[in-house]
């Protein structure tokens, strides 16, 4: 009697695949300072190829499958780029007034303040300097000018649903609530 063996073909990361992974992010190489850890208890979940991640990151994990490990260095030019002087702006304090007066202790050097640009896109600006009537704010990404070293493991690759592709985000199933960081309606 002949026994047929099924060959299991694992799905590879490619456009519109739902990907889960865990990783460690270090500055400036594999011995650099650890600045972020995403573990398997709460993996990062995303739709591959919908421009939600750094292009260099996606390029380095494309074609990997569940269980594959990765490690790579992204030079700052392939990550968040060099800091740009034109993203450091002086803003009048009066621009921050809403329905109430803004207290002077609102403006603290090093504090990140969420703001919106003229098109409604959310930006975080970091207070660099406080002047009498204005503040100098830096809108560069906090990791600009940094080389980033990623190492980790692909924990799952599957077909994304049409809804996930349209919304460019992964949805939780009722059985996985709590593992995606919230947002479940179940």
Explained architecture:
The chain is mainly β. Helices cover 7% and strands 33% of the residues. The chain has 2 helices and 9 strands, in the order βββαββββββα. The chain has helices at 55-61, 162-167, and strands at residues 17-27, 34-38, 44-47, 69-74, 88-92, 112-116, 122-130, 134-138, 148-159. Strand 1 (17-27) and strand 2 form a beta hairpin.
Brief synopsis:
The protein is mainly beta and 186 residues long.
**End-to-end distance:** 49 Å
Can you count the helices?
Answer: 2
Rg, nearest Å: 21 Å
Structural class: mainly beta
Oligomer classification = single chain
**Which percent range describes the beta-strand content?**
25-35%
Bin the helical content: under 10%
**Mean of residue pLDDT?**
86
Q: Return the CATH architecture of the largest domain.
A: Roll
Order of helices and strands: EEEHEEEEEEH
Low-confidence stretches: 173-186
SSE order and pairing:
Blueprint: E1 17-27, E2 34-38, E3 44-47, H1 55-61, E4 69-74, E5 88-92, E6 112-116, E7 122-130, E8 134-138, E9 148-159, H2 162-167
Antiparallel strand pairs: 1-2, 1-3, 1-9, 4-9, 5-8, 6-7, 7-8
């Amino acid at each position: 009697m002949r026994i047929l063996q099924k060959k299991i073909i694992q799905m590879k990361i490619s456009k519109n695949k739902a990907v889960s992974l865990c990783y460690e992010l270090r500055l400036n190489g594999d011995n650099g300072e650890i600045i972020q850890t995403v573990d398997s208890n709460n993996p990062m979940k995303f739709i591959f190829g919908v421009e939600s991640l750094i292009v260099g990151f996606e390029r380095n994990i494309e074609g990997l499958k569940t269980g594959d490990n990765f490690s790579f260095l992204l030079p700052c030019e392939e990550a968040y780029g060099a800091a740009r002087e034109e993203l450091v702006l002086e803003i009048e304090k009066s621009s921050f007034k809403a329905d109430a007066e803004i207290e002077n202790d609102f403006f603290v050097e090093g504090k990140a303040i969420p703001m919106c640009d003229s098109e409604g896109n959310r930006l975080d600006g970091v207070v660099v300097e406080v002047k009498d009537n204005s503040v100098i704010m830096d809108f560069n990404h906090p990791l600009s000018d940094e080389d980033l070293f990623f190492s980790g493991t692909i924990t799952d690759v599957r077909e994304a649903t049409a809804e996930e592709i349209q919304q460019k985000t992964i949805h939780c199933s009722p059985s996985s609530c709590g593992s995606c960081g919230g947002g479940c309606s179940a």
